[in-house]
Specification:
Layout lengths: L1 H9 L1 H13 L7 E5 L5 H10 L4 E6 L2 H13 L6 E5 L12 E7 L8 H10 L1 E19 L4 H15 L5 H11 L3 E12 L4 H16 L5 H16 L5 E11 L3
Parallel strand pairs: 1-2, 1-4, 2-3, 4-5
Antiparallel strand pairs: 5-7, 6-7
The site of S-adenosylmethionine has 21 residues, from helix 1, helix 3 and strand 2.
């Protein structure tokens, strides 16, 4: 998982849409910013230059292993001094109320069983007038070229329903922020687009194939035939994958 997060983080189209979302929030110099579900720290390393030397970046994650990796990567990137990383559950944050200028969760909400509890916690630790920002994919709107459309739908939908608490999380984010009592809700829709089968996309599709087999959606032979279909399209210059990302931001009422 750590390798997958870092590979996604390095993919240029992913970097662009992640940074576009941070500008949309926006994150400003000198601010105290919390990221819930920071994983290996891809977003944390983007946040450090945005808040600058007077700012503070705090990351929490429920996985001790991913946080260890994040600590190492932040140290290697020379950003460790202005970063604090803690093991914590987004549903019960170990911070006083009103402590942060902004609280963010990027590709996390779709994994959590009760997203409203997490967003309410993020709002609690954000100061009045501060921002709560959430960004997720929406796996109801993945478009990918393949000669066997029905098989592709079966694999993509079947696996997403098994591995995400809410595969359509992206489109539900504005309503979630409103339900958590936030004001001035804004939505930024962005698209990850790949026409060359980037390493991260390739691994993403391979993992979908592996998981489709392990969940009994297709046989190993069918999964291999499905993956070979993409290879043939790339060779003909006809591969396209798009995946929608929705970023929603709300302000905590004063
Ligand atoms: C897909 S990763 C995203 C990591 C990072 N935000 C990024 O974009 O690279 C989701 C992360 O959320 C964490 N996570 C899931 N549920 C959580 C929860 N309830 N509290 C804290 N972290 C959680 C997982 O451990 C994982 O590291």
């Amino acid at each position: 998982m750590a390798a997958g997060l870092e590979s996604r983080g390095r993919t240029p189209a992913q970097t662009r849409l992640r940074r576009r979302f941070l500008r949309f929030v926006p994150v400003r110099t000198g601010e105290r910013v919390l990221e819930v579900g920071c994983g290996t720290g891809v977003v944390i390393r983007d946040l450090v230059p945005l808040v600058g030397p007077r700012g503070e970046v705090v990351g929490v994650d429920s996985s001790r292993l991913l946080l260890e990796r994040a600590r190492r990567l932040c140290r290697d990137a020379g950003t460790r001094a202005r970063v604090a990383l803690r093991v914590a559950d987004g549903a019960s944050l170990p911070f006083a109320a009103d402590r942060f200028d902004a609280a963010l969760a990027i590709t996390v909400i779709l994994h959590v069983a009760d997203p409203l509890v997490v967003v309410r916690e993020m709002a609690r630790v954000t100061r009045p007038g501060g921002r709560v920002g959430v960004q997720d994919q929406d796996f109801g709107v993945v478009a990918v070229t393949h000669p066997d459309r029905d098989l592709t739908d079966r694999v993509m939908r079947g696996v997403a329903e098994h591995i995400y608490a809410e595969p359509h999380s992206g489109r539900r984010l504005p309503g979630l922020l409103r339900a958590a009592g936030l004001d001035d809700i804004r939505l930024l829709t962005d698209v990850y687009q790949d026409t060359t089968l980037e390493p991260w996309t390739k691994r993403f599709l391979e993992r979908r194939g592996e998981r489709a087999v392990s969940f009994g959606i297709v046989t190993a032979a069918t999964a291999q035939r499905w993956l070979d279909g993409f290879t043939a399209l790339v060779a003909r210059g006809a591969f396209v994958l798009t995946l929608n990302y929705y970023g929603a931001v709300g302000t905590k009422p004063s």
